[in-house]
Design a protein that fits this description.
236 residues; 6-stranded mixed β-sheet; 10 strands; 4-stranded antiparallel β-sheet; alpha/beta; binds adenosine-5'-diphosphate
């Protein structure tokens, strides 16, 4: 069974106005549990719009989006927020860590947001996640005291601490040098494999896309490629 099922998704901005524009034209694909998928495409092709729809931050104009079989289109904003906090983790190009808080405090934020408090069990989980991303020694550091690559590792720990089935990553290595990019990408691969978490990674880096299980390519709001990669054990 699919984890995410996107069917015939259309998105129009400025509906009813002279500048109305359709930027996604009937996009369909499924993502299975545990898949590591790259989303590529030129600037303006609709990647951010698609990611915002997948992330339940923006609604589509028409089409269907199911997570674990449940339709997202017809539920209200409050239910969407709950789905977002339960089913999805987010990693951004700029880490979006809170600068005044330590790495550990940053990783406890999703629990605070979802449950309104941080239990000792959640604190333990946050510590374990930071250990898992190799930052057990840096839990009490603030983001400003960490390198760019380490900041993204904290962001990955934060995205995964509540064990969502799916993590959406928007150019997670876009702001890093090659060595740090490789390291952060390797970490995502390892975390995805160990925990069977699905990842959708928007990237401009063809090297990183080639190391995913599957590549989706958007051009002018249409899916022009959906290719399973040989390196991941596919048949081609
Ligand atoms: P990408 O992330 O691939 O660069 P975007 O999803 O940001 O693409 O943009 C796709 C198209 O939608 C572009 O033509 C962009 O100008 C347009 N667009 C994006 N957001 C809006 C918006 N809020 N209002 C109107 N047009 C938008
Ligand atoms: P990125 O491609 O790095 O994700 P953005 O999502 O900020 O960058 O913007 C992508 C494109 O969408 C840009 O061309 C931008 O001008 C356009 N865009 C973003 N928001 C709007 C908007 N509200 N109205 C029109 N165009 C927009």
């Amino acid at each position: 069974p699919a984890l995410l099922e996107l069917t015939a998704v259309c998105k129009r901005y400025n509906v009813g106005q002279p500048n109305e524009a359709e930027v996604l034209h009937g996009v369909s694909f499924n993502i299975a549990p545990g898949e590591l998928v790259a989303l590529i495409g030129p600037s303006g092709s609709g990647k951010s719009t698609l990611l915002n729809i997948l992330g339940l931050l923006e609604r589509m104009t028409s089409g269907s989006y199911r997570i674990e079989g449940q339709e997202m289109v017809d539920i209200d904003d409050e239910a969407l927020t709950l789905q977002r906090r339960t089913k999805l983790g987010f990693v951004f190009q700029f880490h979006h860590l809170l600068p005044a808080f330590t790495a550990l405090e940053n990783v406890t934020l999703p629990a605070l947001m979802r449950e309104g408090r941080v239990t000792s069990r959640q604190l333990e989980r946050a510590r374990a996640m930071l250990d898992a991303v190799g930052l057990g020694h840096a839990m009490d550091k603030r983001p400003g005291e960490l390198s760019g690559g380490m900041q993204q590792r904290v962001a990955i720990a934060r995205a995964m601490v509540l064990e969502p089935p799916m993590v959406l990553a928007d150019e997670p290595t876009g702001n890093l040098d090659t060595a740090s990019s490789d390291e952060v990408f390797a970490l995502m691969r390892r975390m995805h494999a160990e925990r069977n978490t699905s990842f959708l990674v928007v990237t401009h880096d063809p090297r990183l896309a080639a190391r995913c299980d599957r590549v989706l390519e958007l051009v002018d709001g249409r899916l022009v490629r959906d290719q399973v990669s040989g390196a991941a054990g596919g048949s081609s």
